[in-house]
Amino acid sequence: MATRRGTSNAVAAHPAKRFGGNIFTISTNSLLSVSSSSSTFSTATGNSSDRIRNTHLDKNIDEAIASFNRMLRMHPRPSVVQFGLGLSSIVKFKQYATVVGLCKLMESLGIKHNVYTLNILINCFCRLSLLHFGFSILGKMLKLGVEPDSVTFNTLINGLCIEGKVLQAVRLSDQMAERGCKPDVFTYTIFIDGIETITI
User: Fold this and answer.
1) Which of 24-28, 136-140, 196-200 is most confident?
2) pLDDT tens for residues 117-160?
3) Do both 191 and 147 map to the same domain?
4) DSSP character at residue 151
5) Is there a single domain that holds both residue 172 and residue 73?
6) How many domains does the chain contain in total?
7) CB 3.0-4.6 Å disulfide test: which of 51, 87, 96, 158 passes with 124?
8) In this structure, how many other beta carbons lie within 10 angstroms of the beta carbon of residue 143?
9) 164 CB contacts (<8 Å, ≥6 apart)?
10) Which tens digit of pLDDT belongs to each residue from 32-42?
11) Do 38 and 56 belong to one domain?
């Protein structure tokens, strides 16, 4: 099955590397060409309305990634806030592995993350069932002096509850409070859903 590739003005590129369901190609000028193989599909089956809907979704994913690549080519580059919005738009299409790769590329190009982009990265790791990497990002935040917020903790608490580790999630909520982030309605909702999942 052919996989579409994003456009790049690079003369040459390193061999593509597969991460999750995505192919990442880093060209010689450090631009990233991302092809989301998980969004490429066969039209041999399914009705016409499904094919049209999937084609439209596929196009929107490509446009979001192409927009992010354009920001990387800008001189001067946009603020990290704009990059965060770009990552968020890609997350909406559940392209979590793609976002992880883009976050790593940002860092390699010297674009400093803020709490918003790191929260997005933590969320993606949790969605990919790579919770331990999410906690690694939390440790990195503390090391860099980036103060985690309630979103940071709630995302990790949710990841723990999804894995059935409710007691660990409770301990994390205690640490959350110790750092001045009081558990909120989202925190308690996560716990309620987590406990219901265990008891069902």
Assistant:
1) 136-140
2) 999 999 999 999 999 999 999 999 999 999 999 999 999 999 99
3) yes
4) H
5) no
6) 2
7) 96
8) 8
9) 194, 197, 198
10) 333 343 333 33
11) yes
